[in-house]
Amino acid sequence: MEKMLDGDLDTMVLLAEYLYEDKTDESIATSKQYLETASQHGHAYASYLLAKRNRMVLSPPADKFWMDNREENYKYYLTLSEEQGNRSALYYLGIWYENGQEGFKKNIDKAIEFYTLSAQQNYPAAMSKLADKLEKGLGITQDISRAFDYFQQASKFRIPEAMFRLGKMLLEGHGIVQDIDLATMWIKKAAFYGNRDAKKIKKSFK
After folding, report:
1. Which of 5, 21, 23, 86 has its CA 20 to 30 A from that of 142?
2. Contacting residues for 106 by C-beta, under 8 A, at least 6 apart
3. DSSP alpha helices (H): ranges in the chain?
4. How confident is the model at residue 205 (pLDDT cuts 50, 70, 90)?
5. What are 103-122's pLDDT values in tens digits?
6. What torsion, rounded to 10 degrees, do the Cα atoms 145, 147, 149, 151 define?
7. Which band of pLDDT confidence, cut at 50, 70 and 90, is reported for residue 87?
8. How far apart are CA 121 and CA 114, in angstroms?
């Protein structure tokens, strides 16, 4: 297979997304072809899009192009995207392995591995998940300091669970310096962005 330049692959994927929005049979078929070509040449995001479209319930004009072997294709492209380094794919594989979903056998060690790889690429949801495991010592050696750092990083991206857990750690002073004012701020922010546990605790604040 002739190697394509990264810039050419990026352009191909952008064009595929543009054509997909056109919603005509010809455009959708061409979009799929471009994504498959980019995926075969190692483009991680193209592989992730193929996984996503195999899993999604699509609109009628597009649905017929993704009917065959959806479950197998979803797993194939998600795994391929992970191997190619896509941080979203790494995160979702972590989710599926942690919970034993989407045909992946439950395996907390693999879940931690994928959360870690995704978090290393600064994927906010993965940082929050990894922080949770580090704080609890679940599948990984407990490390309160690292958990706190990851919750802080994820909170900057407005991940409600991370903001709540960060606030709770600051409120309780568990393994870190207690800071009531900062804890209150993060818990209120988490409540604002919809975290239910934060909403309950917020009621006790003046």
Report:
1. 86
2. 97, 98, 99, 100
3. 6-22, 25-40, 44-55, 60-63, 70-83, 87-99, 108-119, 124-136, 144-155, 160-172, 180-192, 196-202
4. confident
5. 889 999 999 999 999 999 99
6. -150
7. very high
8. 11
